[in-house]
Description:
elongated
Amino acid sequence: MDPDSDGGPTPAEQKSKKRKLPDTRKGNAVDYKIFTKTNYTRQFPENHSVDCVVYVESQENEKIGNKNPITLTKLFTENVKGIAGVHRVNAYKVGIMFRKPAPANNFLTMTHFLGKHKLKAFVPAHLTEITRHKIRT
C-alpha cells in the first residue's frame, strides 16, 4: 500500500477514446457573394456627434502601424486640417480621429494626398451603420 494513500482501493486507469469529429469545413468554395456598390464610399452623417475615426492603411501591404508615431502624426497634421489625434490600430492600420464629420469626410476625398503616399482611407461600418439593437429593461 502506498504511504500517501487514504486506504481505499485505487481505481484502475481507463483509456478514453477521443471522438473524431466530422470535418464540417468546406473547401475553397464560396457559398455567398459579398454585396458591393460601385463608386460608393462610406461617410459620416453631418449630425454625427461623436468623434469620427477614419482608418488608413497602405495600398502596398506596408506596415504603417509600426512606423514612428511622431512621424505619422506630423505627416497627417501638416497636410490635413481638423485632426484631433492619430493612433495605431494594428501593424497595418492607423486610426485618424476628427472632432467633426465634415473634415473626416473631406479627408476621404483627398485622392491627391492619399495617392501620393500610397494610402487607402475608409470609414469602418460599425461607426456609421446600425448593426445591432439592444433592448434595455
